[in-house]
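Anyone? Bumping this.
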Amino acid sequence: MLLRGLFNQSKEIEFFSFSNLLSYLSLGAILASIMLFSILGLNYGIDFRGGTMFMVSSSEKIEVSDVRITLSGSNLGDVSISQATNPLETLSAGTLTSTDNIFIIKVEKTEGQSIETKVKALLLNKVPDIKFLQIESVGSKVSSELVRNGMLAVLLAVISVLVYIWLRFEWQFALGAVLALIHDVILTIGVFSILRYEFNLSIIAALLTIIGYSLNDTVVVFDRVRENLRNFKSMPLLKVLNMSINNTLSRTIMTSVTTLLALFALYFLGGDVIRGFTFAMIWGVLVGTYSSIFVAAKILLILDVKRNWDEKVSTAGTQF
Amino acid sequence: MAKLSFFRILLIAIICFSSLLFALPNFFYSTVDKKLNKPTQTSAWPDFLPSTLVKLGLDLRGGVYMLLEVKTDDVIREKFDFLWTDVRSSLVKKRKELGSIRRIDTSGDQLKIEIGKSENIDFAIKEIDKFNSSTELFSSRWSGSVQRDILKISSLENIITITFSDEQTRALEKQVIEQSLEIIRRRVDETGTREPTIQRQGRKRVLVQVPGLGSSEELIALLGKTAKLTFNKVVSIDSSSNFSAKLDEIVLGSDQNNDIFYLIKKRPVVSGENLTNAQPSFDENGLPAVSFNFNPSAALKFGNYTKDNIGSPFAIVLDNMVISAPTIRSHIPGGSGIITGNFSVEESNRLAILLRSGALPAEIEVLELRTIGPELGRDSINAGKLAALVGGLLVLTFMWLSYGLFGIFANVALMLNIILVMALLSILGATLTLPGIAGIVLTIGMAVDANVLVFERIKEEIKKNGTIFNSIKIGYEKALSSIVDANVTTMIAAIILFFFGSGPIKGFSVTLGLGIITSVFTALLITRLLIDLYILFYKPKVLRV
């Protein structure tokens, strides 16, 4: 029982003693993310940009430049080629061996079958033993719909959450939780802007899961805040918040660690296809845990909560 | 303990046992799969066990995913073209009263007619209104019952605008889509693939999923063609397209030769709808061809036509291209014939399939096309399995190290949780995708949350020197509020994903949502039962959480 009592420290951590500094840090990170996003933009996948993607593998050694030369001048529009490096591929015991070169080729044009046949023919001509692992083609009509649906989904999630927390708590809590969510989403977009990971449909799924997870954390803290506000009516808000965060700290850490353990397993062993998704999730869990303490609770402190929680008049949400 | 009733234990035991039973086949996937698909062979999987399997998504088993849009607007435009020829010939007879008659603005989903004498416009409208109950326009193929007022006629000064009523447009669209679905289904079935999914999506779209297909080329070749076959009278043949075509004539190019153009009559003698059969065969020179049979009424028409036109050519037109234009050498009475062209064997095979399955009522456009090779699918399954296994072991170890005996209770609940998710996926017939596996792995990580919330509360109560019994009771009571809030919020995200996500993402939302439900169930009922049993039988003096 090595880890027993690891979190059983009796001393409380004064979270708000350094929260001002972190608030500026968060604000700075948000601004930086917005700037990165508007300058660099996101590396949109074909889901959102439209185009055709080929994932190919070959046991022969091929260079990215060779593939580029093979495909250049074929009127395919903008072509991007990248090698999928996967040092742990052997561990995942798949049919693809570590010696296989895996390439991801993205072509701007879609025009259905003709592009696919053309690229296939060109590549087969150059590399006879090439295998086509995956071919995806998304037309511009669908890609713009996917963008719209994705944004709508994230927006809808944030609004539903706002309403739910409002019903269960008070508006200050709802605002705190939602600002924490927005903080997480913006920072995730910022990280994707700078790291140039592909931003596709699965990242939208990750964003929504991050929203769910971050909220999970925030709600547990808020739940304790509400309880402590009732129990310690004369205690200053700052102390109540700090006590609540400390009360729930071991749970926060436990759940984050177990989730991260599972996510890291996925990141290293789950294969290339969902690596971007898992990366977003890992980042989201870290940021979400941080934001539930230093954004959500901090905003609650700034907004000030009304203190006359009267259990008889339960207009202020339902307590189980 | 208070709630440790026989009924409660029985209920939990039944749920656990049955979910284990339903999840079991998935752990012997290939054995059960063999039994399901080759029922004649003796199988290692016993009959008394259920053999429900989780459906694997295309990203895991490989296959082709296609989103098609049926161009219903083309059909509507075509209807207006037909209407215009009819309306025009009826109005021309009244030229004295109406003056000049002209169609303006030929594009779009309406028919605009300009007449010379605007004072007599009501007279023209009355003439056009006669077409309102015209069954010719919407033959029984298009609408089962003849509707009144299919046309909306309005006028402004000397321009008459004719549109279809909304109901008519919708009915037309519906019929076009339904017919397209049927024909797409027939064509996909011809490829002999297993369990294709073909469903309507939204107003004009069709989703086609064919698992196990390694390449989309054959499918596109089959679905990309409307395969509208007609036999038309040839007016003249020339090496340039500069014909002066009359209103009922049209210029078409040749499928074989870019330098030959045909002027043909628009209205076909017979068309592909009247075929009863089409088979790949060979012509007298041993070249690939397609033989066909007409139904009796078309056979009669075709017979009469050939009798009357011996010596002149007629055109076999496929999708607005002339495949061949043989000269009629003799009367062809039997209603059967042969189409030759410069076909390869595959092309003649394909054409036979297309003709047998019938023409698509409208062109279709491929909006989205995803092909996943079987290697990648297998790789993803293996990677997913390994990640789930390693992730699971890490979480189990961590929980045990953190909470000791109670950690083991939580671990039992966690394992049951995974089994419950697998069982529910099998029973609901949900599709497991790679993001779906990610959802399960994520569930493994997050599922312990409810247990952690409870354990931390129990710890606090023990610290306050509560009795064992009370600490557990209060721990569960106080944690409930947080557990509900925390899981409802994640559930909101899962539900939104389910409705907005497509394909694999939907699979993620399903496993995430199921995982939330089962994790609350296992934490509140199974862990609780284990704790209660432990206290009942071991009566520990000190509780070490």
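Late reply, but here is one note on the structure posted above: Residues 237-269 of chain A form the longest helix (33 residues).
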